[in-house]
Amino acid sequence: MAHHTADTTTHTQHAILEWVEAHRSDVIGLAQALVRIPSENKPPHGSELECQMFIADFMRQLGCRVDIFRPDEVAGLTEHSAYWPGRDYTNRPNVVGVLGQFEPGGNRSEGRRSLLFSGHVDVVPALGQGRFGWWDATVHEGKLYGRGSCDMKGGIAAFLMATQCVRQLGLELHGDLILESVVDEEFGGANGTLACRLRGYNADAAVVPEPNNMVISRAHRGGQQFRIYTSAPSIGMGFGETELPDPVTALAHIMVGLERLNAQFNARPKPEGFEGDTFPLMPLLLKAGEQLPWGTGEAIPETACVEFWIEIPAGVTKEELQGEIKQMIETLARDVATVRRVSWRMEERTRFLPGSTIPADSPILATLAKNFTLATNQPPVFANAPFACDVFMFNLHSPTPCALLGPRGGNAHAPDEWVNVEDLITLTKVFALTIADWLS
Ligand SMILES: [Zn+2]
Q1: Three-class DSSP category at 347
Q2: Taking CA atoms, which of 22, 103, 202, 315 is between 20 and 30 Å from 229?
Q3: Range of the domain at 293
Q4: Which residues have CB atoms below 5 A from the ion given as ligand 1?
Q5: Is 353 a domain residue?
Q6: pLDDT tens-place string over residues 260-291
Q7: Domain tally for the chain?
Q8: pLDDT at 6
């Protein structure tokens, strides 16, 4: 394919690419500033306020009209089928900035284009010790380290700086640009994203820069976290019983059953776009019994439990997923005496997060692809985002089709989380070019 040269780029495109090159340190500096303001999500609470106020200020400096609101003050949120109860939204406002005539909830004027960028500002709590400080935002060998750098303050910095680029270049926008920073996405939250949809922030297209390794995604996985408990009345050490009620071995049968069930899921035909994906089942916690002060266990535990996260393609419903897991355990309870002798229950540890997909011919995909090539001289890669996230709130619960394009990084949800600094520069270019394309 033809590589881009200056004579095939327009004056505006050229100016955007030059502006971002000249403002590299500002892009990195904004990502660092966001990382340095902790915004941990500790269900049911969260401390996003200070970071959200920083972003609101930044949006005001861009000339945005800024709307600051608690998710649970939005009419219809708590009654919505996708609302996940149990979170406390005290001091946890969503922040939305608008450039243009757009009024949330108002009728969108015919022929007027709109584009929306959305990111979540909450981060998984800092726990453990890495090489770099959690909130230092150290840049080392092309990587920016710190909690939230990759997931996903780097991406938020990129779309804020892209907006600053088009503003400082004085580009006239013939449409509406909506910038959104939501709270409470981690731990299966996503109420913040739903609240923006219900408040009326809908557009012709949305882009979420979750860290999907610089691919353009029209689909993402879903998933849910569960805990399964087995239990039986205590019989102590069990002297002389012929049939021991044994929650531990029963749970082991169930875990093997889960592994088999997930293999069956993976062997089924997968929906379009997900054909090559392998969907994991990850046991995260396993608990039973107690070590006594003298160093041994002495009784068959009354309960045992396993907590696991399972990922699914788009199209699988909550009823299908949960129904098949329960069916598998019921079958075991019928066929395996050890399982039959205990009682069991399954508990949701996160909300059900569906996967979602937008049509392959959604115009935002081609626009992002074209501008990716313009910014990098590389062909774009299209692939599904290999994680669950809040994008389903757009694709399943609003009229706004949402694509993903975000940076490469690593150690998300772990110490020494990092994001590729060069990718933040590239994303700023791609997003600024996309704003210019879409709205002019
Ligand atoms: Zn994320």
Answers
A1: strand
A2: 315
A3: 222-348
A4: 151-152, 210
A5: no
A6: 999 999 999 999 889 889 999 999 999 999 99
A7: 2
A8: 46
